[in-house]
Structure formats: C-alpha cells, structure tokens
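To whoever picks this up:

The nightly regression suite flagged Paraneoplastic antigen Ma-like C-terminal domain-containing protein as changed. Nothing in the input moved, so I suspect the structure step. Input below, exactly as stored in the fixture:
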Amino acid sequence: MDVVETENVKVSNSLIVRGLTETERDEELTEFLIKYGRIARTIRIDDPLSQYHKHVIVEYESSSAVCTLSPVLPYTFESPSHVTYEIRALSAEYLPVAARSATDGFMSELQRLSKITGKSFEEILKDQLSICESSATAGAGQPEKTCTAQRQCESDPQSQADPQVFPPVAPPGVVTPEPVSTSGKEPNSFSFHTREGVQEKGAGFVNPPEVQRMIVEHIVRNETSASQLSVSFKIRSFSGRVPCPSHETDFESWRTSVELILQDSSFSDLQRSRKILDSLLSPVADVVKHLGPQASPSAYLELLESAFGVVEDGDELFAKFLNTLQNHGEKPSHYLQRLQTVITKVQ
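Regenerated output under the current build:
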C-alpha cells in the first residue's frame, strides 16, 4: 500500500477494485462507478510482492460517492459481460496495513529506547500502555463519531453533487433511502453551540476562541483584584513615641504587620521598602533616613530591631507587664491589644 502515500491518495474518497481484465469490458465497471460521482483518477497497483497486485484504486473527487456506497461495501459487481469485480472501501483495506506498519515502527522505537536508556523493554512498554489506557478512559465518555468518510460527506461542499449530472444509483437488489432535501440550507451551517457542530469542527473547537477569551478575562480580573488588594494594604503608622498615640501602633504590632508583607509573594522588595517607609513617622523615620529608599526591607528591620526590639529578660518583661496601664484617652480595645502583646512576650 505504499502507493497510497507516494501518490497522495485521498483514502476517504477512494475505492479499491479487484478483478479488472484490462480490456474494453472494464468500461462497464467504469459506467457503474461513475453513477455515484466524478472520478478524479484511477491508480493501478503494480507490485508483485503485494497482495493487492493488479488491484485498481478509484479515487473520487468527493467523498459523497463512498458515503453512498458504504452501506453495501464490500460489494460484488457482475457486469453484463459476466465479469465479476470486488469493490471495497480503500479505508477498510488500508487502515489495517498502515496500523500494522505503525505498530512495527513503534515497537522498534521502544526497543531502541530500551537500549539507549538501559530500562527494560517491558517497563517502557508498560508505561506506554498506561498512557494509552488513560487516553482511552478519558475518551470513553464521548459519544461515538461517525466514520471519517461520512463526516466529510456531510461537511464537504463538493458532496452536494449535481443530481442532474450524476444521480445516485443503488447496486442491483439494494434499496437505498430517499435523499433528504436540503434546499434552503447551506452546507457546513453548523451552530457552534450544537453537539453536531462541535463534532464537525473537531478537537480544535473543544477550546474555542470565545472560551479562551473568557478564561483570559477571568485570570486578568483576578490578577487585577489581587494587585489592587496588595496596593490598598497599608501598615499602621509607627513613630516610637512613648506613650504610643492612639492613632499609631507599638513596635511589636508594627513588626507583625511587616512580617505579613514580607511573606506576601505579590510584593517586590521595592514595594515592601516603600510601605515600610510610608508607615514610619518621626522620630523613627529619622533613624532609618540614612539608609535611603533603595535599601532592602531586612536592612530597615535590622536597624529598627536594634533600636526598639525586646532586650529585657524575664523579670523585666514581667515588671513591664505589671506597669502596662491604659493611657489617657486610649480606647479599651487598643489597650487590650498592647496588653496582649506584653503577655505574649512574658510567656
């Protein structure tokens, strides 16, 4: 069947015929076949080593002819001159041969990979079979598709052959259904939302442009929301004054807020440094001013830790807890937060 590839035969449009006499009597077969559509060409297989030696491939211009004949194929045609011809769909004959060749090539490639990688042939084969099984399982829920020739027959504009020139004629003794009128309908007028349209367009329409656009918009919208959330996040002000003003926070609470920013991967180091600087008020802002805006967040924290970090031992912390009183005008909630922070240190 090398002729199929060398001659670039359209398998779905073709028949293979056995029994030609290479005489004028073969014209009766031609007259029979031409009733189903225009014949583009005929190719004689001349290969003594092939089982299809002296067979003839009949390629139609459109797949509609094969679609019409497919219900009765393989078909034995007996001409008025009492010559018998066996007519089969080329796809039915070519597929097993091509599949066998592909399988042989596949096995040879696996054996080559086994030698290169050092893995056993059985292991590589088992891995590939697992992949095939997964693919088959994924496609098990999909409805069966019609044969390639039939799908092309339905979608091919050329399949609307001129009935005045080549009316479909059924083989003797075969009753075919009346053709359904398609007047007023354009071929290939499949709606995107119908199952038939999806099957007709193939696997490329599983993820159509409309769905891709919706996915991209969803991703961009989420990223924008996350970005806006990150930008809107602000650290409470810290000045280092004692007692701590009601609109500010103490160092430990401020340090906890900074830790959250450091753990947030949506911020860059420059953004972290900017937020730290924005949250600092004088006199703390004057302490880190010499570092400059390009300093890393860790540099700011290291300097502030040395100035405002906890250096007391356990007794000092306990004494500080006992002396932690509510400031004048301080809200009870703020006082409880400060108290909780001190208790945490003592523990």
